[in-house]
């Protein structure tokens, strides 16, 4: 295999897998498609292994439009791990929903879009990956086409995604107009420390366009309705994969392409981070629907991750990458519980989780551990992630660290409210909930990862250090 193909091997394998699953669904009779979930999960494991095997295989293709460094590889591992866990935990749900091949193939193409985003070396590749991911998610969000809420969520998502893409494209075109290049490395050399008004407007539009993708306030309006209306596994992957991919791009654009403007945009990002943390946590408190509560929690988590972007340093990049990886396990664990609980009871209301600890001790335990990790309670993984993030801003933005600390304590209230319902209240229905093998495996993996990475984060920290260091030395 030549150098170019070896660098593109994970993307090529993912494209073949996506098309293969789609074609397999056309060949296999409708009643015999239950095995497609396992085909998808095993295929994702194969692509994950291929990606990890290329850890030392770095380089760039086509004059730098596609970059393969350890930074990109780490994010690809995060996307593929999330996709594998979501697929493993949603097989029963998808079998009940039907159209397995279309669902799994869209999941794979959304993951492919994320992988392209992580390696984007110019604005054209960036937009190509972004739209591949977004279009696949549009299909997935309204996949339950006979349900009004799902169709409504899809319409809202496509309208706001289209608007955000237009804003982002206009911002990219302004940057191109000022610098004369769409290449990230060439833009970084062309940007001066005294920007022209067109460049300032372009940067503001980039913040708005990408702010939609990460659900930052005030670009978060779509998140609660879309998260509530979409099929729960899609919500899970949207919260983890789409957010991580968007942060991968944010770092490429702002830290790699626009380092000369750092002094101009850093305060904007700090304020955006603070407002997102505050709004996400406060609005989560009165929620009675578990998916809406997790949606506002996801908004708050985006605010925490934005803290790492404020300093535009290697330590900040490490914090973003570290937290994005940890966040995947906690979020997928919580959403897997929500997915399976809905498939059994048909409810997403928090009050209906009463007595879940008696009906399914594993589901209740995973939900509590996942939520406490998101709240940043030691010794869980979320605490270590927040420590790395806030450590980067203590010297220059102490106020931001204080806001993050206070809001983390506020978040404990609404997370523990769910735990209280599960452990204190008596269940209306005492019937035990028996878990299927794939769901139980997903729950155990997410719980163990959240505990182990919180107690012993050293090896992951070293890997993230290496990946963050490679960010500043583009191959």
TrEMBL record:
<feature type="transmembrane region" description="Helical">
    <location>
        <begin position="362"/>
        <end position="385"/>
    </location>
</feature>
<keyword id="KW-1133">Transmembrane helix</keyword>
<feature type="transmembrane region" description="Helical">
    <location>
        <begin position="234"/>
        <end position="255"/>
    </location>
</feature>
<feature type="transmembrane region" description="Helical">
    <location>
        <begin position="261"/>
        <end position="284"/>
    </location>
</feature>
<keyword id="KW-1278">Translocase</keyword>
<feature type="transmembrane region" description="Helical">
    <location>
        <begin position="324"/>
        <end position="342"/>
    </location>
</feature>
<comment type="similarity">
    <text>Belongs to the complex I subunit 2 family.</text>
</comment>
<protein>
    <recommendedName>
        <fullName>NADH-quinone oxidoreductase subunit N</fullName>
        <ecNumber>7.1.1.-</ecNumber>
    </recommendedName>
</protein>
<feature type="transmembrane region" description="Helical">
    <location>
        <begin position="397"/>
        <end position="416"/>
    </location>
</feature>
<feature type="transmembrane region" description="Helical">
    <location>
        <begin position="12"/>
        <end position="28"/>
    </location>
</feature>
<dbReference type="Pfam" id="PF00361">
    <property type="entry name" value="Proton_antipo_M"/>
</dbReference>
<feature type="transmembrane region" description="Helical">
    <location>
        <begin position="293"/>
        <end position="312"/>
    </location>
</feature>
<feature type="transmembrane region" description="Helical">
    <location>
        <begin position="155"/>
        <end position="178"/>
    </location>
</feature>
<keyword id="KW-0874">Quinone</keyword>
<comment type="function">
    <text>NDH-1 shuttles electrons from NADH, via FMN and iron-sulfur (Fe-S) centers, to quinones in the respiratory chain. The immediate electron acceptor for the enzyme in this species is believed to be a menaquinone. Couples the redox reaction to proton translocation (for every two electrons transferred, four hydrogen ions are translocated across the cytoplasmic membrane), and thus conserves the redox energy in a proton gradient.</text>
</comment>
<feature type="transmembrane region" description="Helical">
    <location>
        <begin position="437"/>
        <end position="456"/>
    </location>
</feature>
<feature type="transmembrane region" description="Helical">
    <location>
        <begin position="35"/>
        <end position="53"/>
    </location>
</feature>
<dbReference type="InterPro" id="IPR010096">
    <property type="entry name" value="NADH-Q_OxRdtase_suN/2"/>
</dbReference>
<comment type="subunit">
    <text>NDH-1 is composed of 14 different subunits. Subunits NuoA, H, J, K, L, M, N constitute the membrane sector of the complex.</text>
</comment>
<dbReference type="InterPro" id="IPR001750">
    <property type="entry name" value="ND/Mrp_TM"/>
</dbReference>
<feature type="transmembrane region" description="Helical">
    <location>
        <begin position="103"/>
        <end position="120"/>
    </location>
</feature>
<keyword id="KW-0812">Transmembrane</keyword>
<keyword id="KW-0813">Transport</keyword>
<feature type="domain" description="NADH:quinone oxidoreductase/Mrp antiporter transmembrane">
    <location>
        <begin position="120"/>
        <end position="408"/>
    </location>
</feature>
<keyword id="KW-0520">NAD</keyword>
<keyword id="KW-1003">Cell membrane</keyword>
<feature type="transmembrane region" description="Helical">
    <location>
        <begin position="126"/>
        <end position="143"/>
    </location>
</feature>
<feature type="transmembrane region" description="Helical">
    <location>
        <begin position="198"/>
        <end position="222"/>
    </location>
</feature>
<feature type="transmembrane region" description="Helical">
    <location>
        <begin position="73"/>
        <end position="91"/>
    </location>
</feature>
<keyword id="KW-0472">Membrane</keyword>
């Amino acid at each position: 295999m030549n150098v170019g193909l070896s660098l593109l091997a994970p993307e090529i394998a993912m494209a073949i897998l996506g098309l293969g699953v789609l074609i397999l669904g056309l060949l296999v009779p409708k009643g015999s498609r239950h095995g497609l979930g396992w085909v998808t999960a095993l295929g994702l494991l194969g692509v994950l292994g291929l990606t990890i095997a290329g850890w030392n295989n770095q380089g760039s293709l086509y004059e730098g439009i596609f970059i393969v460094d350890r930074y990109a590889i780490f994010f690809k591992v995060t996307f593929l791990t999330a996709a594998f866990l979501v697929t493993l935990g949603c097989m029963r749900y998808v079998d009940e929903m039907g159209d397995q091949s279309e669902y799994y193939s869209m999941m794979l193409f959304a993951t492919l879009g994320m992988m392209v985003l992580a390696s984007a070396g110019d604005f054209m590749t960036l937009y190509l990956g972004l739209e591949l991911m977004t279009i696949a998610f549009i299909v997935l969000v309204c996949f339950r086409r006979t349900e009004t809420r799902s169709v409504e969520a899809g319409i809202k998502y496509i309208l706001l995604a289209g608007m955000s893409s237009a804003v982002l494209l206009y911002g990219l075109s302004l940057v191109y107009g000022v610098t004369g290049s769409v290449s990230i490395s060439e833009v970084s050399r062309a940007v001066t420390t005294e920007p022209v008004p067109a460049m300032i407007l372009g940067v503001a539009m980039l913040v708005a366009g990408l702010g939609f993708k990460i659900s930052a306030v005030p670009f978060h309006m779509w998140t609660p309705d879309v998260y509530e209306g979409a099929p729960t596994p899609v919500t899970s992957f949207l919260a983890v994969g789409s957010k991580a991919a968007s942060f991968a791009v944010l770092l490429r654009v702002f830290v790699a392409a626009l380092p000369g403007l750092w002094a101009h945009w850093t305060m904007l990002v700090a304020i955006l981070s603070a407002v997102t943390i505050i709004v996400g946590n406060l609005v989560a408190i009165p929620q009675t629907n578990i998916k809406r509560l997790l949606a506002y929690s996801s908004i708050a988590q985006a605010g925490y991750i934005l803290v790492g972007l404020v300093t535009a340093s290697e330590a900040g990049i490490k914090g973003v990458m570290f937290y994005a990886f940890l966040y995947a396990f906690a979020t997928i664990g919580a959403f897997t519980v929500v997915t399976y609980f809905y498939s059994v009871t048909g409810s997403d209301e928090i009050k209906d989780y009463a007595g879940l600890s008696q009906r399914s001790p594993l589901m209740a335990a995973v939900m509590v551990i996942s939520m406490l990790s998101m709240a940043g309670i030691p010794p869980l993984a979320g605490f270590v992630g927040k420590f790395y993030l806030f450590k980067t801003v203590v010297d220059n933005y102490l106020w931001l660290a204080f806001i993050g600390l206070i809001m983390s304590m506020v978040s404990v209230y609404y997370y523990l409210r769910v735990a209280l319902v599960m452990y204190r209240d008596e269940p209306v229905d005492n019937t035990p909930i028996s878990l299927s093998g794939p769901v139980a495996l997903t729950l155990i993996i997410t719980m163990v990862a959240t505990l182990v990475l919180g107690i012993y984060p050293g090896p992951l920290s070293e890997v993230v250090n290496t990946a963050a260091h490679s960010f500043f030395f583009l191959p």
